[in-house]
Amino acid sequence: MPQISAAIQAAEAEGRIPSSVSLDYLAQSRDQPTKIAILFVGALTFVIVVARCYARLFLVKKFGWDDGLAVFTLSLYISIVALSVVLIDMGSGRHIEYIQYVLTLTQVDNTEIYDFVMHILYTTALFVCRLSGLAFYQRLASRHPKISLAIKLSAGFLIAAYLTQFFLLLFHCLPVTGLWPYTWQPQIDDYNCISWGDVYVANSVLSLVCDVMMLTLPSMLIYMLQVSQKRKLQLSLIMFPGVLVLVISCVRMYLVIIGQWSSDGSWAYDPMLAIETSEVGGTLIALSIPAMKSLFGSWFSHLKAYSSRAGGTSGKPSGAAHRTYGRSWETGVKLSSLGNRTMDDAYKVNIGAGEDPIAQMPTSDRHQRSRNDNSSEDLLMDAGFSQENRQLALKHGIRLTEEISVSSSRASGIHQLGR
Predict the structure, then answer these.
(1) How confident is the model at residue 397 (pLDDT cuts 50, 70, 90)?
(2) pTM for the full model?
(3) What is the rounded CA–CA span in Å between residue 364 and residue 62?
(4) 130, 248, 271, 319: which has the fewest Cβ within 10 Å?
(5) Which residues pair with 399 in a beta bridge?
(6) CATH code at 6-296
């Protein structure tokens, strides 16, 4: 049996609660689990965005527009989480009878104003976060004119959708107000308002379309890559956490419909707050995971180095090592493209023995190469001459650089040399 709060007891003492409404019913609450869910997702999002910033600032040493927009989104998100907790504590997610009979009119006004501010921040946070995603995709697709054009068109659509959502919220009532009066509030006759459900359903539909668009862009990037199916699958797993965001967006629309057209609409408000905060947090997480490639790469390289020292090395290369190196050679050189080149066109390849190509570079180039190996700019490239393959080649006395020109007329010679 739920505990009867002091607010309910006070409302009963003042005669504000009809006899047909039980105190146990008014005491029902989903506040605690909702707050736990909101704070958990908020903490997870904060940790992941901080890890992303660390990777970009201290490992890659490049902090782009996408990173800056993600940090700005995080600041908005923290405000949204705080306001959501305040709204829950004020009783916004309780039964509609609780709001009507237990809360005072001033408290109801405050819940409506806080809700208005929170949803302005929520809409803005999603918009800025999606712009961060577009900036990240543009950085990856800078050499793909068609995808770059699609990203720019998507940015225009995002701006138009955000302005529509913003003005729907701002002008939901005339004259403009932060209130959204219930029929039993005295201000109901002071404003000409669009229904809460109409505005939120319209905004939810636009948000869903934006989420579909944000999921389509990385799929286009991956589809157009000329890499192995295995590599495409790996990239899909990394870049498609946005599917979860899409599901969250659909659930939010369902809860909005319940909230407007159910007789006890406020009972769906707590889950809707959890879904909305999860949507912003999930979008931030989905767009931060690919940008954290450098951090994962750094961890994995340390683990591999430790494993190599602990297990020892063999002087004789295995067949598997030869096959791995062969794949790297074919991917890096891309001999299949030689037939499209003229006789004078050349590819840069070099084979030497027993020296480390990175160690022989000038210091500045060496640092740049090291950063690029683990940066997110090469996320959409095939494995090529990866750091792992360079170390494997060095282990077996093979030196790889990109120095000597090999013309297309000598492709057959290269094929024999690759064997």
Answers:
(1) very low
(2) 0.74
(3) 15
(4) 319
(5) 352
(6) 1.20.1070
